[in-house]
UniProtKB/TrEMBL annotation:
InterPro entries xref list: Arc_rbn_hlx_hlx, HicB-like, Ribbon_hlx_hlx, TTHA1013/TTHA0281-like
Alphabetical list of CDD domains matching this protein: RHH_NikR_HicB-like
Descriptive protein name: RNase H-like HicB family nuclease
UniProt cross-references to SUPFAM superfamilies, sorted A to Z: Ribbon-helix-helix, TTHA1013/TTHA0281-like
Pfam families: HicB_lk_antitox
Domain annotation HicB-like antitoxin of toxin-antitoxin system: ranges: 4-124
Length: 137
């Protein structure tokens, strides 16, 4: 299991954002710190899974000293985000949505640092967990 540094950013009127210096462009957010950490783990796993599917190399984790040496990172709080071993095989599926729903999905996913597939997978998992929690109550 590798650990990557995530940087938590928080503006007064925003959620807790998380970026990854080793993966430029990969960002996610959470409504509180616990949610941000959870979203960071999911976003990192999905991003790395996509890189592997595309045959791209996974970078070695940067050191905390190297990340914090960048002046742009000094206002953030550094956390370790674990990249758990991917034991699941991804399967490509073909599904159909109304165009406006797909547009909303893509807009939401992009705003939260997820791919379309990552968002749909998370939404499905959340719905299943919610149903299981109702049954258990």
């Amino acid at each position: 299991m590798r650990n990557y540094i995530g940087l938590i950013h928080k503006d007064a009127d925003s959620d807790f954002g998380v970026s990854f210096p080793d993966f430029p462009g990969l960002v996610t957010a959470g409504i509180n710190l616990d949610d941000a950490r959870h979203m960071a783990e999911e976003a990192l796993a999905l991003h790395v899974e996509g890189l592997l599917e595309d045959g791209e190399a996974i970078p070695e984790p940067s050191t905390l000293d190297a990340v914090m040496a960048d002046p742009d990172n000094r206002d953030a709080v550094a956390i370790l985000v674990s990249l758990k071993a991917q034991s699941r095989k991804s399967v490509r599926v073909n599904i159909t949505f109304p165009e406006e729903v797909l547009t909303e999905i893509d807009r939401y996913a992009e705003a939260h640092g997820l791919t379309r597939s990552g968002f749909l997978a998370k939404a499905a998992q959340d719905a299943i967990k919610a149903k299981e929690n109702v049954r258990a109550a």
